[in-house]
Amino acid sequence: QEVQTENKTLVQKDKEHLWHSMSRFNANANPTIATKGEGSWFTDMEGNKYLDGVSGLWCLNLGHGRKEIAQAAYDQMVNVSYFPLTQSHVPAIELSAKLSSLLKGSYTTYFSNSGSEANEVAFKIARQYHAQNGNPGKYKFISRYRAYHGSTIGALSATAQANRKGKYGPSASGFLHVPPPYSYRSTFESDLAAAEYIKEVITWEGADTVAGIILEPFISGGGVLIPSKEYLTRVAEICKENDVLLIVDEVVSGFGRTGEMFGFMHSAGVQPDIVTMAKGLTSGYMPLGATAVQSYIYEKFKGEGDKQHFRHVSTFGGHPAACAVALKNIEIIENEGIVERVSQLGRSVLNELQDLETLDCVGEVRGVGFLFGIELVADKQTKAPAAEEFSGKVIAKCKEKGLIIGRNGDTIPGYQNVLILAPPLSSTDEDLRFLVDTVKTVIEECESQTV
Ligand code: PMP
């Protein structure tokens, strides 16, 4: 009785005082309040156990409760608890060097607090870089429809989903959008044609006005889009030919999610000018954003003059404990062969999920590494997207059976029809078995109920 009363007050307090992100999904429903986590699983207040099939927000890559990571944070906090990066500290130095070697180039990193901020930093660096090169007119950024790059005004302007529309005044100027490669629905003949379209946009906008292109190697929240490997290779060439910086958003795809350390590494010959990271950088154990730029860009910012001064201050960016956590996270990923495991197991999970394509309600199942999308349709011939209620029903039924899955984010109405699975990279064979079996059973059940 006492426990129940206490629980009730917690829910009430939550409803009154806690503003959830993506509150559209939460405002009217009782929130799931996690009280215990273990590996890929968490337990809610009522004692229900769930497999987290989306790794929180695709960040909890090593699952809950890694004591080595907690220890790294503790050790750092009781030593140098905070120090600004206007000066320097050991974990930030070590992490910046480690990122450069993981990215297989010569990179210098600016640390911040989140993926959104990492992208803002990228935009500012790109514009200032061109200005210092004598090209202040190069200020535009190209991103793709369906992409999500963050919630702050610049990152939101690069985002091309419905959440940018209507409520927040005009987008920041200079943000252009092009269609992504999307073989299932695209009007383009091929993914390469989608790359050539970018070239055309640059030509007609004027290469002397375009600062950069920002893209995820695989659009994640916008519906798990898996282009052919040649797409990114070609986009990188187009960037080079036009002095346009290639900014690769590895916030979701970085640190093993796609079966490579970074998503861009699936494509030959791609060495991004700028790479942005967050989420998997710390496996969600600490907030940290990172913007790594090739050294030739950083060179332009050396010097004491106002022209070189990069005006972006981040009090908590590169917090010592967060950097220590990131270093330990990367050490575990490397020592436990996580990337190779994700690559191998990801293929077999995808094969099994693709059995679902025989159902009338499943248009396409696609994926890479531990990132899977199941596109639900109302009509397989016309490819009309399944109603939001249908994907909602599948998600709710999975939850009843102890599995949390997601769907594509705030795209445009009528297109919330891609289920998303992104389990922790450390998931056991049994965890993955449960994930695949539950999703398959639930979608089959939901289809049979609609017929
Ligand atoms: N880029 C991508 C691809 C993302 O998925 C997200 C977060 N969902 C962001 C950037 C923004 O990250 P954050 O929420 O840490 O600001």
TrEMBL record:
Record InterPro entries: Aminotrans_3, Aminotrans_3_PPA_site, PyrdxlP-dep_Trfase, PyrdxlP-dep_Trfase_major, PyrdxlP-dep_Trfase_small
Molecular function GO labels: pyridoxal phosphate binding; transaminase activity
Name of this protein: Adenosylmethionine-8-amino-7-oxononanoate aminotransferase
Superkingdom field: Bacteria
Entry's family note: Belongs to the class-III pyridoxal-phosphate-dependent aminotransferase family.
A Pfam family annotated for this UniProt entry: Aminotran_3
Transferase listed as a keyword: yes
Keyword field: Aminotransferase, Pyridoxal phosphate, Transferase
Keyword Transferase listed: yes
